[in-house]
Specification:
This protein is mostly helical. The chain is 70% helix and 4% strand. Strands 1-2 form a two-stranded antiparallel sheet. A hairpin with a 2-residue loop joins strand 1 (7-11) and strand 2. The longest helix is centred in the last third of the chain and has 29 residues, at 176-204. The termini are far apart. It comes from Streptomyces phaeoluteigriseus.
Length: 213
């Protein structure tokens, strides 16, 4: 990983690392594949997490830990989508909106998890120099990926909330390419949200009797 952590180029007085650039390109590709409901979204997200883990490890331990969780959830997402897509006509998962109970559970888990992780980071300062934003991104990423794994449209909303903190934090920490990519994420999230929203509405309509599948 030493060569990947070397400088690739300078952009707007920001030093871009190879690992930062390559990892985020894979992350961007994973988001596009998720928008297309492709099962390959998960291996690509796993690879992105692996590369970014190497980029953050030893400098931003909290962010490195987030990438370890990303890899674990990517494995779960791969398993979940393989199971769920077998019941669809086109071989892809059918997006749906979460129930109010699921929304409440995810919101509660996000709030409690952010507080718990932030307190952990504050108790061990070596894990993060900015505990609350790191904890917010850490937990928000897990919640977003879990919602994606379950095929919930809300996963796009969760990513938007993560981006609101992730963009300035990446620029502040010198990971400029991550910041630029997160801006692109924002645009893709809006398009993906619209696509999944429309698909969830079509998928929830009952088939007419005698109509072709």
């Amino acid at each position: 990983m030493n060569s990947l952590n070397s400088e690739a180029f300078v952009l707007f007085d920001q030093h871009i690392l190879w690992s930062d650039m390559i990892g985020n390109i894979f992350g961007l590709a994973g988001l596009v594949l998720g928008w297309r409901r492709s099962i390959w979204s998960w291996p690509v997200q796993f690879l992105s997490g692996l590369i970014l883990f190497g980029a953050f490890f030893g400098h931003l331990t909290g962010s490195a830990g987030k990438q370890a969780v990303v890899m674990a959830v990517a494995l779960y997402g791969w398993w979940q989508w393989n199971r769920d897509r077998s019941g669809s006509v086109d071989g892809h998962i059918i997006p749906r909106f979460a129930t109010w109970r699921e929304r409440a559970a995810m919101a509660g888990a996000a709030a409690a998890g952010t507080v718990a992780v932030a307190l952990l980071f504050k108790a061990h300062p070596s894990l993060s120099w900015d505990p609350w934003p790191d904890a917010y991104i850490f937990v928000g990423t897990v919640v977003a990926m879990y919602a994606q794994a379950r095929g919930m449209v809300e996963f796009w909303f969760a990513w938007l909330l993560v981006d609101l903190v992730g963009v300035p934090l990446n620029f502040a920490n010198g990971y400029a390419f991550s910041g630029f990519v997160y801006v692109i994420y924002g645009a893709l999230v809006l398009w993906g949200m619209r696509d999944w929203w429309l698909r969830s509405r079509r998928g929830s309509r009952p088939a007419l009797e005698g109509a072709p599948a």
